[in-house]
TrEMBL record:
It comes from Virgisporangium aurantiacum. PANTHER family: LONG-CHAIN-FATTY-ACID--COA LIGASE (PTHR43767), MEDIUM_LONG-CHAIN-FATTY-ACID--COA LIGASE FADD8 (PTHR43767:SF7). It comes from the Bacteria. Residues 417-492 form the AMP-binding enzyme C-terminal domain. GO terms for molecular function: ligase activity, forming carbon-sulfur bonds. Residues 10-367 form the AMP-dependent synthetase/ligase domain. Pfam families: AMP-binding (PF00501), AMP-binding_C (PF13193). This is AMP-dependent acyl-CoA synthetase. PROSITE patterns: AMP_BINDING (PS00455).
Length: 504
């Protein structure tokens, strides 16, 4: 399926149903489909041909998201660009992708001005929220004739900018169709879904729209963050599905209005993009309800390497299965997952190694980077870079990112294990554990902690708390308490920034 086919599927169920809703105003499937055709026609008039790359630079916005379908209908390739990136990184990505057109929000005009002279291939630029410019762009098109895609390539997504030149992940229509099928197979969908998108549509929150559209669902788009607004929209729109990374879930749990919000419509509250503390997940199951649903994936294998539906968080007698809360669920139905050692041999149950994946969920490759593609697919499996194991019930446990493991005094210490112990402390809101150079230990386990509002805890208290649970080797030798932690555009804690700050 092309990306526009999900919109067409929803429109076939009820063209007059609300499709995209923002700030209380809705556009029906028929209206979104009509605008999609006009966008595709205008792109064609500007010289965009099947296979060309078209970028979108915008915060969450219904018109920007409609452009995704216009790009697809034109047979072009969608290149989402994160508006929170630095200008240099976005220039590098647009150059790497070879983008021919850029559709952007007026608020990012200064960024576009800074980079456009360095991008000679970029021949079409249009601001969709400048009425005169947008109307003139749409007026370029004529009645649209559907252009078949040159191949199955649907989107190119930037990733990996922390270790040098960013890479572009090539995702095909087949990859996203597999992800959509897994979503519909693995999670509850009762009736017409209403999906609330707070997280950026350039990332996980965006691709989760496709299964919702396939069911003729409504997508409620939040233009900006705000936990209070998020809770209000859950209630007023009777939202059935939503997604947040753990950091934002912690903020939901800390919000004063949570316990007074009617969440009875919720069927599935997805969490993912980073490990969640089991103690906080237990709290969410009790306070938000038995609707929490985990997904684990990465850009190269989008979203659904493993899944844990709401029911899997509970035992047969209805009690919370606390022993599973640290897992990432079971391998998804259309994905094969294994654990591999450095020699390429597969491990047995409960043996730790790198998590590797096979199946049609896995990317086509890194754009214009055959060496990186070959390295990621060594031994015939896609290498995730995550360390973990499978238990006897086929639940997947992610121990750490390979690069985040701390080797101290000859012992391997997995940062996520220490983080989970710290997060059990009632005063802790969030934390990150890193390894810093140490003359005696090689690396010393170092924790940076953010406390909950109105709570106090000393470094010594936190150290003793962890020591009682993990022993001396894994207890951080250095603990820092910060008012907040540096985070990425999607809410992930930036360990690299923490290490730079601590070492400066």
């Amino acid at each position: 399926m092309r990306l526009v086919d999900y919109l067409d599927k929803g429109a076939s169920l009820d063209p007059d149903a609300p499709c995209l809703t923002t700030d209380g105003e809705s556009r029906t499937y028929a209206e979104v489909r009509e605008l999609t055709g006009r966008i595709a026609s205008a792109l064609k008039a500007c010289g965009v041909r099947p296979g060309d790359r078209v970028a979108i630079l915008s915060a969450n916005d219904p018109t920007a998201f409609t452009c995704v379908f216009g790009i697809s209908l034109a047979g072009a390739v969608w290149c989402p660009v994160n508006p929170r990136n630095e200008a240099a990184e976005n220039r590098e990505l647009l150059d790497l992708f070879g983008c021919k057109a850029l559709i952007y929000q007026d608020r990012f005009a200064p960024l576009v001005k800074d980079i456009r002279d360095d991008l000679p291939a970029l021949t079409t630029l249009v601001r969709f929220d400048d009425p005169a410019e947008w109307d003139a762009f749409l007026a370029l098109g004529e009645e649209y004739v559907d252009e078949p895609a040159r191949d199955d390539l649907a989107m190119i997504v930037g990733t990996g900018g922390t270790t040098g030149r960013p890479k572009g992940v090539e995702l095909t229509g087949t990859n996203l169709e597999t992800m959509t099928a897994i979503t519909l197979m693995s999670y509850p969908f009762d009736g017409r879904p209403v999906y609330l998108a707070l997280a950026p549509l350039t990332h996980a929150a965006g691709v989760l729209c496709f299964p919702v559209l396939a069911l003729g669902g409504e997508i409620v788009v939040m233009r900006g963050p705000g936990i209070g607004v998020f809770l209000d929209l859950l209630q007023t729109h009777k939202v059935t599905h939503t997604f947040l990374p753990p950091t934002l879930i912690y903020m939901v749990l800390a919000h004063e209005c949570l316990d007074d919000t009617d969440l009875s419509s919720l069927q599935c509250f997805w969490y993912g993009a980073a490990p969640i503390a089991p103690a906080r997940l237990d709290e969410a199951l009790r306070r938000i309800g038995p609707v929490m649903a985990q997904l684990f994936g990465q850009t190269e294998a989008p979203m659904m390497i493993s899944t844990m539906a709401p029911r899997d968080h509970f035992r047969g007698d209805g009690t919370i299965a606390t022993e599973r809360l640290a897992s990432a669920g079971r391998p998804a139905p259309l994905v094969t997952v294994a654990i591999m050692g450095h020699d390429g041999e597969l491990k047995r149950r409960r043996e730790t190694g790198e998590i590797v994946v096979r199946g049609s969920l896995v990317m086509r490759g890194y754009h214009r980077d055959p060496a990186a593609t070959a390295a990621a697919s060594a031994h015939g499996w896609h290498h995730t870079g995550d360390i973990g194991y499978l238990d006897e019930d086929n639940y997947l446990y992610i121990v750490d990112r390979e690069k985040d493991m701390v080797i101290t005094g000859g012992f391997n210490v997995y940062s996520t294990e220490v983080e989970q112990a710290i997060m059990q402390h009632p005063a802790v809101q969030d934390c990150a554990v890193v390894g810093l150079p140490d003359d005696k230990w090689g690396e010393r386990v170092t924790a940076v902690v953010q406390l909950r509002t109105g709570h106090l805890a000393s470094r010594a208290e936190i150290s003793a708390f962890v020591h009682d649970r993990l022993g001396g080797v894994k207890t951080p030798k250095q603990i820092e308490i910060w008012p907040d932690l540096p985070r990425s555009k999607v809410g992930k804690v930036l360990k690299r920034d923490i290490k730079v700050t601590l070492m400066s």
